[in-house]
Amino acid sequence: MAMDYADFARELRDLGDPLADEVVKELLDDDQVNSVNNLFRQIDTADSQIPAQTPAVLREYFETTREFPDWVEDTRLADTADFFRHHHLPASAMQATVGLVGTYLSPVGAYTLHSTHQLSHQPHRRLSQSTRIFMGMGDSDAFTDHSKLVPTCQKVRLVHAAIRELHRRSGEWDYDGMGAPVSQLYTAGAALVFSVGVLDGMENIGLSVDQNEAEGFMYSWAIVAHFLGVPDKYIKEAMSSHGRATELWHEGREYEWAPSDEGRILTRECIDLYESYMPPGFEGAVPAFLRQALTDRFADMVDVPTSAFDLGADAATLGTATLLGGPVGHNPVSDEVVGHLGKAVERVCREAFTAGQETEPQMADRIG
């Protein structure tokens, strides 16, 4: 019998990542965080040579977690390639805006991000680190042995483990009320937000994706979830198909999404940054875009402001069959906004790098 969301949440809410957690405990005990972050910059691809000075526990981690799972199928990866060939720019724009705000709509997720990122005055740096996975998923070698995406996921997995361990050591985390910090429920839920939530958002603004490509995008996030440490059992249960993932997430969203002060703060920072990149005549486009993609119900939870910007015809009036195929309709105004947002995401990453800010995932050695 398929798990419902209550079953899924009950099993994953308090579950950490034993393999990564043990690695991080040893690195923190040995005061190795700074040297580890330096090593992160030297591991670029899944087939990179691990630097000689790498602590043994970290070397073993990188070597044993870089292999693709045995359930990966080339035929399904062909659908993934088709999705990114046709939709890489809008998908990246959606993931970096609608997807991120979706994670802020989880009060536990927003609290965790706000309490640990230590980057409140460096939005370029924080958002560039957050978007490395999204941008890397569209690379031609993303799902090959020369992948740059895989080591990014391996590093993020350790970042999550460090957050869990630092909160454990602080003695201040409310385990009864919030479950484990960055639990597997959070990680699997984020994968669903960035896949199902993005496809939903694309549909809401009138961007059509055919069924095979939607399945390919879902499959790419199942693989990413594996490299982020989600046990394969739950990936197969939650992300075996776009239909199953949509069913589970739409049920879960009713449990997980709610207003929070931290969610409002992070959403406001995200909107302000991307608004600063919009050209003249597009003032208010970012909140208008978020409201249409998320729907007013969820946008209101994080105080996405209303805007006079007109995105044009609603998706429902475009004569499209939207996500699951049929004639493709286009909303020229939405298309243009998505194009500007895609370019903004690229600029955020580029300008963080040229400003000398760290764009690699980085482990923390403290929270605050």
UniProtKB/TrEMBL annotation:
- What residues does the ER-bound oxygenase mpaB/mpaB'/Rubber oxygenase catalytic domain cover? 87-311
Family matches, as Pfam families: MPAB_Lcp_cat
Top-level taxon of the source organism: Bacteria
Which InterPro entries does the record match to this protein? Lcp-like, MPAB/Lcp_cat_dom
Q: Which GO terms describe its molecular function?
A: oxidoreductase activity
Name recorded for this polypeptide:
Latex clearing protein
The organism named in the record is Streptomonospora litoralis
